[in-house]
């Protein structure tokens, strides 16, 4: 019994940060294993709100070790800003955080390229990335010739390596039409000293997370894996090409962290009680009407990283069943139940109609998904606030009926219900005893 994972089952922002923070005290390590500063994980602790991008959401618990493992792509400038932003709030990252020497760096040229290409349309729509340089960085990782890793910051030939890549990248980005003022930001004379400053600040926090985590797993320590983004944004299994550039479903845990599957016992699949999406791409249950606006307002559905309004819609059981199976989910965490308490009538998508046929399979092509029409089941709203509910027994019957229907449709029991952003606004259902997870104060 050693590894538990928290995976988003929709398009991100399912409240993974809240759950990881809540569960972290029962674990020895919290592990971020993919994505980068495209993630924005919110942790509300009393009157304080923390927005974490690279830093694992276990960081508020001093006895928990937080690991940023090889699959994460790191922008050192923003990571240092995050560390410095937490320090005056009493959070000491130097003591309890380690960054893998194998992790790749998001360099200024990756961000310039992301900005330059973000408006490019693919299949009639732009992906609408977070402009954090994620796609260009992962592409260089796979391409190898222009990649720079954490360990490179510590090598004697660092300056030479960075100078060479900066010169090559300047030529490539000039040919892509990046304006000369922006190219100045990636000039060798700018980036070489910048990288030296990163090395100075971060060297004490760079190490071999793989070795440490393998030792920990073998010593029966408890590991909590923190997914970023959501499974529908997975590069291989999501709504391609409207996805992120890493494996954000359960399949990414082992590749990104270096921990083999035998150490993973539980996968907690996090989803909102409705759906949201930021950026472009198909969204079968999207509500482009007053109800969608109402959900956005009630759920404060604006991006944690970019501030963009999130697209809102009904719960899509076809999509979540697919991602729950794909991610090996053992329990669902159903978040934002408080938001639905205000609506008169709820809908859950139980199947799609594609070209006149009813299907329950999640199609692999974005154009097919765009053509899918949702087939809904209507459920009466329960119209009773649940923000202050702290046990399943006190949940309105209508709300429980909604939860049970989602369990049936997705095929996985609900272990956690969330009724607000606060730690206390969380209910661990009976089923969660199987997970051996207990709520913390
Ligand atoms: P993450 O990226 O998956 O960690 O999620 P985000 O932090 O981007 O977005 C989730 C938002 O919902 C945050 O602002 C949380 O504070 C908030 N939140 C978490 N759980 C609940 C809940 O049950 N109800 C409400 N109303 N808000 C919640
Ligand atoms: P967390 O971890 C929601 C979306 C972007 C865009 C697509 C590709 O907070 O859940 P990228 O910058 O990764 O190349 O953008 O993925 N996206 C997210 N949406 N939550 C996230 O992270 C996201 N990270 C990326 O909006 O549609
Ligand atoms: Mg987020």
UniProtKB/TrEMBL annotation:
SMART domains reported in the protein's UniProt record: Adenylsucc_synt
GO biological processes: 'de novo' AMP biosynthetic process; IMP metabolic process
CDD domains reported for this sequence: AdSS
Cellular localisation: Cytoplasm
Keyword Metal-binding: yes
GO-annotated cellular components: cytoplasm
Binding site for IMP: 13-16, 38-41, 130, 144, 229, 244, 308
PROSITE patterns to which the protein is assigned, alphabetical: ADENYLOSUCCIN_SYN_1 (PS01266), ADENYLOSUCCIN_SYN_2 (PS00513)
Nucleotide-binding found in the keyword field: yes
Cofactor: Mg(2+)
Role played: Plays an important role in the de novo pathway of purine nucleotide biosynthesis. Catalyzes the first committed step in the biosynthesis of AMP from IMP.
Protein name listed in UniProt: Adenylosuccinate synthetase
Lineage: Bacteria, Pseudomonadati, Planctomycetota, Planctomycetia, Pirellulales
